[in-house]
Each structure stands twice: as C-alpha cells, then as structure tokens.
Amino acid sequence: MRSPLRLTLCAVGLAGAVGLALPSASAGDAVGILVLKEHGVGSAAQAQPYVDKFVAAAAKLAGWPVAKGQYVTARSAADAVITAEKPHYGIFSLGAFLGMKAKYNLEPIGQVQVARLGGQQYFLVSKTATDLGGCKGKRLASDHADDPRFLETVVAAGAFKLADFTLVATTRPTQTIKKVVTGEAECALVDDAQAEEMSHIEGAGEVKKVWSSARLPPMVVVAFPSAPAAERATAQQTLSRVCEGDGKQTCAEVGLTAIKPASATDYASVLAAYDK
C-alpha cells in the first residue's frame, strides 16, 4: 500500500511548493503553512521532521525571516493549529476543505496533483455484487465513513447514503479491502489509490469495481484571511512555475505531477453539491 514515507514526502513537497511560490515576508512576519491530509498512511509525527526541513529550505529561498510548517492528519488537530498559529496558507484534502471552508473563510488559490495520493475518485468494490444495487442492504467496509456529508453529497452525488448499508468501519486502507477478501463485508468503499493497490493484496484478485464516482478536483491550496492580499495574489500567479527550473527535480521526487493557480470557480460544482 502507499508507504508512510511517500505520503510524507508528498505532503512536504506540497508545503515547500507553496513556500517557494510566495514573496518574501517582511521582518518579524511568520509565514505558516498547514498541511491537512486525511486518510493517509503514516503519522503526523513521522511527517513533521520532513516538513520542518523542507519549510526551512523554502524559507531560505523565499527570504522569510521566520517560517513554520505543520502536518496533521485530522481536522481536530488542524483546528488547534489554526487557532494557535494562524497560518497564512494550507494544503487540504478535498473533504477537509469543503468541511472547513466556511468556518475559516478559506480561499482556494491553487490545486495540486500528486501521483498515487488518492482522494480524486471513489469506488464500490465487491467479490459478489455486480452493481450498486447489489451492495445496498449489505455490509460495507470503509475507512472514509467519518464524513457522511462529503460521501453522500459529493462522492455519491445522491446515488446512495451510508444508511443504505450496514457499515463496517475500518481504520486502515488495506484493512478495508481485506474485509471484502475475507467475507466480513460484501462491499467496500475505497478511493483511487486503494483501488490501484488491490492487485498487490493477497486474495483480492476476485474483488472488482462495481460502481464509480465522478472524478473529483485535486487537493486544494488555500489562503487564510491572515495572508495579506498582495502576498496571496503573488502566490497565485507564481504557482504554475514552482515545478520548473530548480523545483523540477523536487517535484518529481515527491510525485507532484502538477501545481497550478485555482479559484473557487474550479471547485464550484463540489461546493454547490456539499452546500445543498
């Protein structure tokens, strides 16, 4: 499955990419970058040393007198960081962005594509069912069920509700698929990264996709209200150049395949679905 190190490097690369895109901070200013990646592999403690190292390098290149990066895996932890540190920027999983946008007045300024990070498409998989109807009323394993609103309004787009199944909650990506392999659940809801790994899980050869969501937008680069308007405008304009020149190798190493400016318009459809 996705290794903790690879996901850590992806998050670090995203944090550093935003840092490299920003203009220099004035003396005494602290530029904070919060990375919130839900449903990943590995802990925040594993990731934080890499984040610290990369943000320090970004600060040196950007000319920041002070910079701080923070990697978290849960919204509760993000809440604590936002309250205490008041970061300027963040890189959020799509569900987390939708769930926290109104609370913190988050402004999308960019989007990032990271190879094999997951979260852009979801599938129902099964050994016995052949379609969505065959999964309804049956046991459904998933490690994504902690945000029913996101799953039902954006991922399922009204095709199903979690109440249509007997939920078998799991805590690890591979555990979800193994529940179907062992027969502890007839179906599982997985994301694209989990689906790609099925062929590497013993006994999963008979597990097939029986329903697919639409493809969703990638992770979001956001600006908090604490970021000065001029600073965020420059950041948005320069995002597309982060993986060029000296940044090309770094982006390749962390699996960052694309980073570009974005706005609320790029997320309008999922925002509308989530707010229904």
What does this structure look like?
40% of the residues lie in helices and 22% in strands. It has two domains: 4-116 and 217-274, 3-Layer(aba) Sandwich (D-Maltodextrin-Binding Protein, domain 2); 122-212, Periplasmic binding protein-like II (D-Maltodextrin-Binding Protein, domain 2, 3-Layer(aba) Sandwich). The chain has a six-stranded mixed sheet with strand order 2-1-3-10-4-11, sandwiched between helices. Strands 7-6-8-5-9 form a five-stranded mixed sheet. It starts with a helix and ends with a helix. With 276 residues, it is α/β, with parallel strands linked by helices. The chain is elongated, with a radius of gyration of 19 Å. The protein contains eleven helices and eleven strands. The chain has helices at residues 4-21, 44-62, 75-85, 94-104, 132-135, 148-155, 173-181, 192-197, 229-238, 247-253, 268-274, and strands at residues 30-36, 66-72, 89-92, 107-114, 122-126, 139-142, 166-169, 187-191, 208-212, 219-223, 256-261.
